């Protein structure tokens, strides 16, 4: 029986071929399932397989996030109309999609941690690629929690459900930052500035700083530094290499577009009071400083923390679980990164709260 079961199991080649067919048919869940099975074989992934695994994950997430956006919009529209039945149906469907996004993210995170990183210690390319992918997964979770907070009661400190959502968002953001830092530490030593994986890392990290940490200055610094280093490197290579390494050119174009977008937002006043683009990023030490500042920044608004502690402690009489979350969110037993992230979220939520 065991021999028959083993014989029935698809081979590595069959799984890869299934993933390729699934991609052509746009059946991305099947594609991710097939490549997850390949990764779980425990022998690492080839360059081709690594690309299939990454595209499968991002395609699944893009598809489900698009569905989430549609359902969220429908929920808001029906809520404004007072159509409670339709609104409830949209809420239930949106929560189902949220669960599917989380499931896909944690599936990939577990495979990276338990399988791929363990067999990739000798390859800088693979280490940076997988740490970056892990950071992307947690960044997706943080963005999801951030968006989901908009559908909960928004007051100064919120209900227990909102506190739980904020705690989950903070945890995902911190894990994303840790993974990106590990990727950068390997990339800056082992990968040249024109390496597409290193450029992709800069693109993802700059988005993380800008969108989740609400730090345009650090985001601009990371993106500008990566672009400057790559341009300097390309000036010293032959024209043939420039033509063949199209991935490098593509990522450099994306970085330029990102910087141009942020500058235009600054000019329109979207980031009023925040200076970006005026600091020269002259070496990789500047990028390292951006990571260190994000990691070591300690929230200095002690009065706000004390006020939060007083208000949140009122929940402690209801049950032990609420007490633990309240103490956690009020700053007790929080790391420096968590405090900094909490401060950013709190400022954002307070700013958007209805008067």
UniProtKB/TrEMBL annotation:
Which intervals hold domain 14-3-3?
12-278
Q: Which InterPro entries match?
A: 14-3-3, 14-3-3_dom_sf, 14-3-3_domain
| Leader peptide range in chain numbering | none
| SUPFAM superfamilies reported for this sequence | 14-3-3 protein (SSF48445)
Q: Where is this region: Disordered?
A: 300-320
Which family would the database say this protein is a member of?
A: Belongs to the 14-3-3 family.
PANTHER family xrefs: 14-3-3 PROTEIN
User: What is the name of this protein?
Assistant: 14-3-3 domain-containing protein
Organism (species)? Urochloa decumbens
């Amino acid at each position: 029986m065991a021999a028959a079961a083993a014989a029935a199991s698809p081979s590595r080649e069959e799984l890869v071929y299934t993933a390729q067919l699934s991609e052509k048919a746009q059946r991305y869940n099947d594609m991710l399932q097939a490549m997850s099975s390949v990764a779980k074989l425990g022998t690492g992934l080839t360059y081709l397989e690594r690309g299939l695994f990454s595209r499968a994950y991002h395609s699944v997430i893009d598809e489900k996030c698009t569905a989430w956006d549609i359902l969220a919009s429908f929920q808001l529209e029906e809520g404004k109309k007072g159509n409670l039945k339709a609104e409830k149906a949209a809420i239930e469907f949106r929560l189902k999609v949220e669960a599917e996004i989380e499931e896909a993210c944690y599936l990939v995170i577990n495979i990276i941690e338990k399988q791929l990183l363990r067999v990739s210690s000798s390859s800088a390319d693979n280490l940076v690629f997988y740490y970056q992918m892990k950071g992307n997964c947690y960044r997706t979770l943080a963005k999801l929690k951030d968006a989901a907070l908009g559908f909960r009661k928004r007051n100064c400190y919120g209900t227990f459900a909102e506190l739980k959502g904020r705690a989950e968002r903070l945890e995902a953001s911190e894990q994303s930052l840790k993974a990106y830092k590990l990727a950068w530490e390997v990339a800056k030593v082992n990968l040249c500035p024109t390496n597409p994986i290193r450029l992709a890392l800069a693109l993802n990290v700059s988005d993380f700083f800008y969108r989740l940490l609400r730090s345009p200055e650090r985001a601009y610094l990371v993106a500008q530094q990566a672009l400057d280093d790559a341009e300097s490197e390309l000036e010293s290579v032959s024209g043939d290499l420039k033509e063949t390494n199209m991935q490098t050119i593509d990522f450099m174009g994306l970085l330029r577009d990102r910087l141009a977008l942020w500058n235009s937002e600054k000019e329109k006043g979207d980031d009023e009071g925040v200076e970006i683009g005026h600091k020269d990023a002259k070496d990789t030490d500047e990028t390292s400083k951006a990571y260190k500042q994000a990691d070591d920044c300690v929230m200095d608004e002690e009065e706000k923390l004390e006020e939060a502690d007083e208000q949140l402690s009122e929940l402690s009489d209801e049950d032990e679980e609420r007490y633990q979350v309240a103490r956690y969110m009020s700053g007790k037993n929080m790391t420096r990164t968590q405090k900094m992230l909490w401060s950013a979220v709190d400022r954002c939520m307070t700013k958007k709260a209805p008067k």
